[in-house]
Amino acid sequence: MLHTSNPIINHKAGWLNLASELQNVSKACKIMGVSRNTFYRYQELVETEGSEGLIHRERRVPNL
GO terms for molecular function, please (predicted)? Predict the structure, then answer.
């Protein structure tokens, strides 16, 4: 179970916690209104980088 005080990742961490509490990824995704693919992407980020991996990072370089 993830515990965080960062409001940016609080929603995503809550979603991962909901899936672990329900023991059903599909049901948690349906409740939260997101795809299972996104869930597994977030779960992989948490496993590799910890809870800080859930912070949104811009992928593109700004076009000045």
Answer: DNA binding
User: SS3 string of the chain?
Assistant: CCCCCCHHHHHHHHHHHHHHHHCCHHHHHHHHCCCHHHHHHHHHHHHHHCHHHHCCCCCCCCCC
d(CA 30, CA 18): 11
The number of residues making up the chain comes to: 64
Phi-psi region of 16 (alpha: psi -120 to 50; beta: other; left: phi over 0): alpha
How many Å is the maximal CA-CA distance in the chain?
A: 46
Tens-place pLDDT, residues 8-64: 678 788 888 888 899 999 999 998 888 999 889 888 988 888 877 777 777 777 777
